[in-house]
Design goal:
Blueprint lengths: L1 E4 L2 E4 L3 H12 L4 E4 L4 H6 L5 E2 L1 H9 L3 H4 L4 E2 L2 E6 L2 E6 H4 L6 E2 L2 H14 L3 E3 L3 E6 L7 E5 L5 E5 L2 E4 L17 E16 L8 E4 L5 E5 L5 E7 L10 H12 L9 E15 L2 E2 L2 E3 L5 E2 L7 H22 L3 H30 L3 H4 L1 H13 L4 H12 L3
This protein binds 8-demethyl-8-dimethylamino-flavin-adenine-dinucleotide (RFL).
Length: 392
């Protein structure tokens, strides 16, 4: 077994792990990133698509914006199509000129990988049998087997569990140390990634046919979401039904059909652990919390956690001040719960206002009133815009 030593081991090379690794590198702190998948797999994985204002500011402040944001498209307008009628919410204007950027997750990941390697960062792909030990000691360890079958043991001051919901980090914490909060929104989403030109603005469509959404995912691709029963069978979604339902629900009879690149049924669930740390292990991003895709905050929470942890580790390493590390979990959970609320607000507002038979007539009317308020109250529109832009 090869024995090594560093300051931080980052487990996982998704948005959270790669952001953290780049910030640590910028701060001059040694770290090793250990990723289970191949580089190609990680760089092709398509998921989120919106980077909020705050996250973009953060990349600016750390001097990474030039390499990470590049051509990220700015779209300050959100379309709500209600019963086929477009209603535009000028989010940037409502949020004091601040806006989110369209930056598909795979581009963010590709750029963060490139930036880290360009700065001579230590990023290891295809690491299997990853195991965390001695987390409650001053020098925890990670062991893994590399692609050639050689075993490694890395000792470090801090472990960052950035390995997503199904990763090994959270499962390495002894039973009883973390409180888990889960919520099943009792809604299914059928999602389609397709070669269809992106919409003019990101769009949510509400009608008695049910909820649908159309989001940009690159210059020629779109991601669509369609509300469906929770345990819906994927095989029932033939190409013909997909385009027929999208045209109906989006109120867009001329929507062109394109090659379907991926289809899946997404669980609309929420999950949070508290605290987001144990001993010298810090859980970051999806390893600590899952949020529904409604509101587009999963990737942004991951980036926020990563920045909070990078700053805390910098204080500990550079100034010997461990207080920010002790505050890490509470700081991140504040934002997590705020976004869980935002996501739940949108979920109820946009799903209950669809088919009255699904939500029942009372909740249907409540949801329609909420939706209407976005276009009649400056305060309601302002709050929505602030949360969407991710201010603060
Ligand atoms: P990730 O992206 O899951 O990365 C974790 C990394 O850890 C690796 N890994 C391991 N490495 C070493 N050892 C192990 N034992 C390991 N186990 C796992 C994995 O291979 C991977 O590389 O977590 P991270 O970095 O916290 O980032 C979180 C985001 O990916 C996630 O929140 C978003 O993608 C969620 N999400 C969306 N977020 C948004 O902000 N806006 C959206 O519109 C949006 N849409 C989505 C989404 C997630 C989706 N899925 C499938 C989960 C749409 C979908 C369909």
């Amino acid at each position: 077994m090869l024995h090594e030593s560093t300051t931080v081991v980052v487990i996982g090379a998704g948005p959270s792990g790669l952001t953290l690794a780049n910030l640590l590198r910028t701060a001059g702190i040694d770290c090793v990133v250990v990723e289970r998948q191949t580089r190609t797999y990680v760089e092709q994985r398509q998921r989120a698509g919106v980077l909020e204002w705050r996250a973009a500011q953060m990349f600016e402040e750390w001097g990474l914006a030039g390499r990470v944001l590049q051509d990220a498209r700015v779209d300050g307008t959100q379309e709500f199509r209600i019963d086929g009628v477009p209603h535009l919410l000028e989010v940037a204007e409502r949020a004091g000129g601040r806006y989110a950027r369209i930056l598909p997750q795979q581009f963010l990941v590709q750029r963060l990988v490139a930036a880290f390697l360009e700065d001579k960062g230590d990023l290891r792909f295809e690491c299997t049998d990853v195991r965390l030990d001695r987390l409650d000691t001053a020098r925890p360890t990670v062991t893994y087997t590399d692609a050639e079958g050689e075993q490694h043991r890395i000792e470090a001051d801090y472990m960052a569990g950035c390995d997503g919901f199904h990763g090994v980090s959270r499962r390495s914490v002894p039973d009883g140390e973390l409180t888990t909060y889960t919520y099943d929104h009792r809604i299914g989403w059928f999602t389609v990634l397709a070669d269809v030109p992106p919409p003019r603005h990101p769009m949510f469509a509400v009608s008695t046919h049910g909820f649908a959404a159309h989001f940009p995912r690159g210059p020629r691709s779109s991601r669509f979401y369609l509300q469906c029963p929770m345990d819906d069978d994927l095989s029932g979604w033939t190409e013909e039904r997909i385009w027929e339902q999208l045209r109906l629900r989006l109120g867009e009879p001329a929507l062109p059909a394109g090659e379907v690149l991926e289809k899946a049924v997404v669980e609309m669930r929420s999950f949070v652990v508290d605290p987001m740390s144990y001993g010298r292990l810090f859980l970051v991003g999806d390893a600590a919390h899952i949020i529904t895709p409604m509101g587009g905050k999963g990737m942004n929470l991951a980036v926020f956690d990563a920045e909070t942890l990078a700053k805390a580790i910098r204080s500990a390493v550079r100034d010997g001040d461990e207080q920010p590390l002790r505050d890490y979990s509470a700081t991140c959970l504040d934002r997590t719960w705020s976004f869980q609320e935002y996501s739940r607000w949108m979920t109820e507002m946009l799903h209950d206002s669809g088919d009255p038979a699904t939500a029942g007539p009372f909740l249907h009317r409540i949801a329609r009133a909420r939706l209407k308020r976005l276009f009649t109250s400056d305060h309601a529109a302002g709050l929505f815009a602030d949360l969407q832009a991710g201010i603060g």
